[in-house]
Amino acid sequence: MDYDTKYCQSCGMPIEGKEILGTNKDGSKNKDYCMYCYENGGFKADMTMDEMIKDCIPHMIKANPKISKEEARESMRKFFPTLKRWQ
Fold first, then answer.
1. I want to staple 22 with a disulfide (CB 3.0 to 4.6 A). Which of 29, 30, 69, 82 is the partner?
2. 8 A C-beta contact, residue 39 and residue 22
3. Given the DSSP bridges, would you call strands 42-43 and 21-23 parallel, antiparallel or unpaired?
4. Residue 3: what pLDDT?
5. Single pTM value for the model
6. For residue 37, how far is the Cα from the chain centroid?
7. Is 1 exposed, middle or buried (0-12, 13-18, 19+ CB in 10 A)?
8. Which 3-state string (H, E, C) describes the chain?
9. What is the pLDDT of residue 5?
10. What is the pLDDT of residues 19-59, one digit of tens each?
């Protein structure tokens, strides 16, 4: 992981610009979560960390084609507990 990069504190996706940020109830951008996870001040899906990992595996493999499904899962199992949503 690149520790200078900001990551969504729910799905771990790199946040590389304000346009990807989720929104608070007042419509302002939320600095911690991406638009795929957070909208109008709440999470878009009620799920467990394991469910989030399962949903994120295809996206991680698409972004990193050289890794296997199991490598993606193991990487997220180590990383996700450090994210705000899963602490």
1. 30
2. yes
3. unpaired
4. 53
5. 0.88
6. 7
7. exposed
8. CCCCCEECCCCCCEECCHHHEEECCCCCEEEEEECCCEECCEECCCCCHHHHHHHHHHHHHHHCCCCCHHHHHHHHHHHHHHCHHHC
9. 78
10. 999 999 999 999 999 999 999 999 999 999 999 999 999 99
